[in-house]
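>> received
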Amino acid sequence: MSSPPDLAERIYRLVLHAYPPEYLETFGDEMHTTFLDGSNEARSQGTFGLFLLRELLDAPKVLVNAYWYWWRRKLQTGIQILQEVTSSSDLPPVPPDGRVSKRQVLFECSLFIIAGLVLILAAYSPLPGLSSGWQRDPELLGKIIVPLTLPLFLLGLVHGLPRWAYPLSGMLLGYYGLVSNQTSLWLFLIVLLFASSILALVAILTDPQPSLLPILFRRIGQSLSLDWTRLSFALYGAMPLVILMAFDDSHYNNRTPYFALSVLVMMVSALIYCRSHTKLMQMSALLAGITLSIGCAWLDRIFFANGLINWIIVSSQGTAGNSWIVILWFQWIVLLLSPALLVTLGRTINLRQAT
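>> returned
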């Protein structure tokens, strides 16, 4: 019959198999030796039972730390491989953007200028062919948005995704997000996007001899890595749709000056972003644009709601009071700040890897 110390050692050997293989290969012998030394010392002092109890209580914490160490190493290795296959060291510099080129400012703000003018004309001087409620007609919006933005966005991809192409992607993403939400397909599309991204990463990370990606993909990666605020600028490209959502309050926009003010704020904020040289000023311009544009819709409801009591039948938002406007504002603030959160997480991982 085995003695308690021998039985404890056998059990401990079994417990070691619960650790990640790489971790066990690196620290397994050291952990086993430490257990034997502690076990022998505890027997000599007559505290063997207390020693086993302490090891048992510490086991969950040690296992969690081991798996955290293992996953962190895997993540760091994956990031290093991605950096290698997307290296832009042999690529030409990124073309200048609106910070140094006034012509680029015109390109980068063109979406907001054109969309703003169309919104103002459609609201205050109805265009031919536009029927009442066109703001809520996704089919009509698609006939306008997709033909105007998709070809230009594809052209931007071919040219390495310059900064003027980012708002176009945001407009397309905003439109298809609106359609998927109305058709209840948003969850399916998110799962599909997540699955395809995972498969692409697995294909790269499991390649025994990873090689550089094609120049087109690396130029896009070069553009994305140049300035993380470009991702926020891309999301800001959906602002025309956000303004339509914010003013979707069951009364005609041509009866309020706040709609035009909201559109003007959108365009001015985009211009300030394009000319700003610091990330703080760039993000401040985008956040101010979102806040003030949606704030104009809130002011519109405050100043005009009393005059609509007698003829509003059903609110299009279906939410009591003005809380839905606050929710809309909060959602887009979080979206604009999400690239900053991702960059902070990436820097934290790189810092831990360096140490």
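>> The longest helix spans residues 48-85.
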